[in-house]
Amino acid sequence: MTGPIVVGVDGSHAALAAVRWAAVEAARHGVPLRLVHAYDPPTRSYPQIVLVAQDLRRTAEQRGGSLLAESQRAARAAAADVPLTTELVPAGPVEALVRQSRRGRLVVLGSTGPRAGASAVAVTEHAACPVVVVRGLGTEDGPVVVGVDGSPASERAVEFAFEEASLHGVPLTAVIARTGEAEPASRAEERRLLAERLAGWPEKYPDVRVERLVLRDPPVRALLGVARGARLLVVGSRGLGEAVGAPLGSTSRALVHHAPCPLAVVRPSQEAR
């Protein structure tokens, strides 16, 4: 995909961190960066409040322009030469970013606090491309960690994770986690499943050193533990056994709120457009 990396801008420290992270990614991938600020326009049209609505809209546009200018400066400081555009959109933030995702390579947004977390979940549920939620900045030379469970979404996540690890010259840690105690035969089966899900990718990306982990722990807790010190955590949008109609699985949803490093949520390729 050659579309831009799209970043949601709202003036928060988390959004500025997302802008800086995305600028570096855009430069590495050789794609443009698009900064988007969305605002809800006034909807009432009674004659007595038309002028008030116009003033509100003008104020929102002025504030949005200032926020985009600030974000543009942050992006230039992180990656001076990346092609960059800005867009002020009269729509709700979730609606605007989901619409942008149909043409984007990646959507990036910050997530701190309950409202930001809810917006991140909503965008991740409905975006047409992978979404990266930047909570912590991660460790620059840390591994890319990918959760594997055998679902179509995790297969696409593995592909995404290998590409990112190769691009940044860092190792990849593939994790499969199950709850409860396991018999030796069960552990062997899980190691076999992990090997199957990774098959072919080490050959395609021979520069990526791969570590395989089979853990007896709930998936969320296992991934949170392994992701400490990671550059990026990658998961599928929906795990094995979760309802096909569910837009976002329970593990991915929990990680949006608690991941210690940037989190990429990747949908199955058949759902990407």
From TrEMBL:
Nucleotide-binding keyword on record: yes
InterPro entries associated with the record: Rossmann-like_a/b/a_fold (IPR014729), Universal_stress_UspA (IPR006015), UspA (IPR006016)
Protein's UniProt keywords contain Magnesium: no
SUPFAM superfamilies documented for this protein: Adenine nucleotide alpha hydrolases-like
Name of the protein described by the UniProt record: Universal stress protein
A GO MF term: ATP binding
Domain of life of the organism encoding this protein: Bacteria
Gene3D superfamilies with a match to the protein in the record: HUPs
Family, per entry: Belongs to the universal stress protein A family.
Protein species of origin: Saccharothrix coeruleofusca
Pfam families: Usp (PF00582)
The UspA domain, residue ranges: 1-135, 143-267
TM segment ranges: none
Key words of the record: ATP-binding, Nucleotide-binding
